[in-house]
């Protein structure tokens, strides 16, 4: 081999070695950049108690449901186009009733559906919501109470019991931190299909049922934004407001309407909301039983008031029977009156 050939071979070998080293450095740099970007994204998500950990390095791709067992997470992007794309896929994948149930689990109505950066989505959809009830299905302590409605501040949800059996539950938005809903035992008073708010006359309150006449507290349909937002009232989805409007009993007033002769359905509000912390229903992603209220806990909350509830229930039945009997007697008297010539 000539000297010229050896020299040429040496330079080709050197050039190839330098090229390989350069490529390796570039690959390492790119990997480091990706790790840094992902780390920053996780740090940003952890800085907000309501965010899930997402890889922002892949933000150009539409977010997808993250498989997580009983509940999954659907990340909602801030960018409008991406958000619209997610909603289109969401609407295509789930029926109207299924979407309604998913939003209800996130304490949202359709108007406020994107008031969240993440939706919890059950792996299997039960449109009645009963499969996801955080309330016990049976409460023996309420066996003698025919109708009972209870609102939980901690999980922003209500439950309805008939003779100790859970017949319905759903989402609510209760009083915000500066205008919290009164706690304790109350009773349903009067109801009105369309009430006007005493805070702002522009606010219309469909299917309003008053439970605290002095403080003007009641349950009714209004926006569910995914957190406690009301001026002390108990906001409900329209379907729930209509259902409760028909279910609960009103008070019975004495002649003249100045005093109460009998109280309506017992209603209780209990607990405290974790202000400034992660929304309670987001914990379902880690533990599907995170929001569950045990029979023992519910019994402890309700039991001190059962005697009062049964007493008022008995009184109302007597008053209602008395009024019914009086009306029947009045009808008989009218029928027995001689007809006018």
List keywords for this structure.
disordered N terminus; alpha+beta; 20% strand; 341 residues; 4-stranded mixed sheet; L,D-transpeptidase catalytic domain-like; 5-stranded mixed sheet
Give the helix/strand layout.
Blueprint: H1 3-46, E1 65-66, E2 71-75, H2 80-93, H3 96-105, E3 118-122, E4 148-152, E5 157-162, E6 165-171, E7 184-187, E8 191-196, E9 204-212, E10 217-221, E11 234-236, H4 238-247, E12 252-253, E13 260-262, E14 266-270, H5 295-336
Parallel strand pairs: 4-14, 10-11
Antiparallel strand pairs: 1-2, 2-3, 4-5, 5-6, 7-14, 8-9, 9-10, 12-13
InterPro entries: LD-transpeptidase, LD_TPept_cat_dom, Transpep_catalytic_dom
Region (Disordered): 41-63
Domain L,D-TPase catalytic: 147-270
Describe the structure.
Helices cover 35% and strands 20% of the residues. The protein has three domains: 1-47; 57-122, no CATH class; 133-326, L,D-transpeptidase catalytic domain-like (Beta Barrel). By secondary structure, it is an alpha+beta fold. It contains five helices and 14 strands. It is elongated and about 80 Å long. It has helices at residues 3-46, 80-93, 96-105, 238-247, 295-336, and strands spanning 65-66, 71-75, 118-122, 148-152, 157-162, 165-171, 184-187, 191-196, 204-212, 217-221, 234-236, 252-253, 260-262, 266-270. Belongs to the YkuD family. Pathway: Cell wall biogenesis; peptidoglycan biosynthesis.
Number of helical segments? 5
CATH topology of the largest domain, anyone? L,D-transpeptidase catalytic domain-like
What general outline do the C-alpha atoms trace? elongated
Q: Total strand count, please?
A: 14
Which class best fits the helix and strand makeup?
Answer: alpha+beta
Helix content, binned percent: 25-40%
The average pLDDT score comes to: 83
CATH class of the largest domain: Mainly Beta
State the domain count: 3
| Cα Rg | 30 Å
What composes the largest sheet?
A: 5 strands, mixed
Strand content: 15-25%
State the end-to-end CA separation. 144 Å
CATH-defined superfamily of the largest domain:
L,D-transpeptidase catalytic domain-like
Order of helices and strands: HEEHHEEEEEEEEEHEEEH
CATH architecture of the largest domain: Beta Barrel
- Give the low-confidence spans: 3-9, 14-68
Biggest sheet strand line-up: 6-5-4-14-7
Family: Belongs to the YkuD family.
Organism: Chryseobacterium taihuense
Protein name: L,D-transpeptidase catalytic domain
Domain L,D-TPase catalytic: 147-270
